[in-house]
Amino acid sequence: MALFCLVKGKVFSFFLLFFLSLFLNFVVVGDRREKEKEKAERNSREIFVVGWISRYKNQRENRKIKKK
Hints:
There is one protein chain. Helices cover 97% and strands 0% of the residues. It is mainly α. It has one domain (1-67). The longest helix is centred in the middle third of the chain and has 66 residues, at 2-67. It starts with a helix and ends with a helix.
């Protein structure tokens, strides 16, 4: 009987750890995906702003060249 309880406790603790690790894995992976999405959005905004600024500078330089 004691052996059965010991085995039963080990099986229970195994399943408890297994499901806990699965849950934590989903939480960590979900958090990582959110961070990657935010990073991609930030990068796309930065690229847009940098592109807009460079276009503006090019237009100003072209106007200066035309005025000369």
